[in-house]
């Protein structure tokens, strides 16, 4: 890979990636959604056999309690310990995000306020396919539990034998998931949004998936709420000459191995560091089990970018708005105040991205494709709704009524004005 300067670089090739003929994909997804709405469970069974190669008629869509019990017997104690510790950290972090309902009494006797209420039923999508993600189960379900959601429904594609990986089932049980279904893809999103015979509809859908899942979430938005439209994973590292090439390479590849469309970008004012890291990436690629995926990502969407100084590098990072942003510099806290757009920031060489993916506590469901400019990570508020409270006193309405009526008439809404004036307070 060649080292490039900003002048030589086309940033659009590294971010906001195209999925090809999106219009055709949108149409395919719309057809799947329409079929699930019309045929219900029958469509889920047929589409699961078509896309996943699994006939679930004899096994059923819903995971049974005995399957979860068996899953515990199939995982080792070290995994259970790690999952429980991660859950504790995630719960503790998200507990700090909770806010209370509030009421604000006024001297005139009126009361204004806001109720913060948890959603009743949410759906969590957990990817399958090239890798299993018990960590995604925790990151989606634990904040929902902290928020007070009563019903947490998980959907995920089954393996070829019609089962789910025991690690995913154990994570779901530990996280507080209340229902689990063996269905993935756009059909799973449609089932959550509109309901089928076996799966009741939800209020909101969270969790990342492939392009079919993302487009399905986009299409059902409005019928239900969604968290965000997540794309392939991203990492951007800003490093100075204090960084170590071996560590930077490992961090870049930690995201490249996710997906051939993932992007891994290294930015530095130190050309020698960039050259060493590029060579180190090539060396480490040879040792990765997912070498093919990581290599495709690195060769198509990776970059080593030379900037004149860290200020220019920070400006570039804010323009890219990466999902994961590592600041591997001598004094990372000195630069934290300059961060404007990022899903999550990792400070210093002892904060590699996987610390956030699995264990530290902040959520790993993060905005991608530049949407960190306006989206936030998954959080407790994702699973809450706000209800305004208005209790006007007679004194307050007597004081404000004529102004309300005047504004209503200016908008041509006479009945609005009369609804105030009928109380004959002035």
UniProtKB/TrEMBL annotation:
Residue sites binding NAD(+) per the record: 125, 187, 210
Catalytic activity: L-histidinol + 2 NAD(+) + H2O = L-histidine + 2 NADH + 3 H(+)
Named cofactor requirement(s): Zn(2+)
Active site, renumbered: 323-324
A single GO BP: L-histidine biosynthetic process
GO-annotated cellular components: cytosol
One term of GO molecular function: zinc ion binding
Entry similarity comment: Belongs to the histidinol dehydrogenase family.
Protein name per its UniProtKB record: Histidinol dehydrogenase
Source organism (scientific name): Desulfitobacterium dichloroeliminans (strain LMG P-21439 / DCA1)
Gene coding for it: hisD
């Amino acid at each position: 890979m060649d080292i490039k300067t900003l002048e030589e670089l086309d940033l659009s090739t590294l971010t906001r990636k195209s999925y090809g003929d999106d219009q055709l994909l949108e149409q395919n997804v719309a057809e799947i959604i329409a079929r699930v709405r019309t045929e219900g469970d029958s469509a889920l069974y047929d589409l699961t056999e078509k896309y996943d190669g699994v006939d679930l008629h004899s096994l059923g869509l819903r995971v049974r309690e005995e399957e979860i019990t068996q899953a515990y017997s199939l995982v080792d104690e070290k995994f259970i310990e790690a999952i429980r510790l991660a859950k504790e950290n995630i719960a503790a972090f998200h507990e700090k995000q909770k806010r209370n309902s509030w009421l604000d009494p006024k001297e005139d006797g009126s009361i204004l306020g806001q109720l913060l209420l948890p959603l009743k039923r949410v759906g969590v999508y957990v990817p399958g396919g090239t890798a299993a993600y018990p960590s995604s189960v925790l990151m989606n379900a634990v904040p929902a539990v902290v928020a007070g959601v009563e019903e947490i429904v998980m959907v995920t594609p089954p393996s070829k034998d019609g089962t789910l990986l025991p690690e995913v089932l154990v994570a779901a049980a530990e996280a507080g998931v209340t229902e689990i279904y063996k269905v993935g893809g756009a059909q799973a999103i449609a089932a959550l949004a509109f309901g089928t015979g076996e799966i009741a509809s939800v209020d909101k859908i969270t969790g990342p998936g492939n392009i079919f899942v993302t487009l399905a979430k986009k299409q059902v938005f409005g019928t239900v709420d969604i968290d965000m439209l997540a794309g392939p994973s991203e990492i951007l590292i800003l490093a100075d000459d204090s960084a170590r090439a071996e560590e930077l390479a490992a961090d870049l590849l930690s995201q490249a191995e996710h997906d051939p469309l993932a992007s891994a970008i290294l930015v530095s004012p130190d050309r020698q560091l960039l050259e060493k890291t590029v060579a180190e990436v090539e060396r480490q690629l040879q040792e990765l089990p997912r070498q093919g995926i990581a290599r495709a990502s690195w060769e198509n969407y990776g970059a080593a970018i030379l900037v004149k100084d860290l200020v220019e590098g920070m400006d570039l990072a804010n323009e890219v708005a990466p999902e994961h942003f590592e600041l591997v510099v001598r004094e990372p806290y000195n630069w934290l105040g300059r961060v404007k757009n990022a899903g999550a920031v990792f400070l210093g060489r002892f904060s590699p991205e996987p610390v956030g993916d699995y264990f530290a506590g902040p959520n790993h469901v993060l905005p991608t494709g530049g949407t960190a400019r306006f989206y936030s990570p998954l959080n407790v508020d994702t699973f809450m709704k706000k209800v305004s409270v208005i209790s006007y006193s007679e004194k307050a309405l007597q004081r404000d009524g004529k102004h309300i009526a005047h504004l209503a008439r200016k908008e041509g809404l006479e009945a609005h004005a009369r609804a105030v004036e009928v109380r004959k307070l002035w």
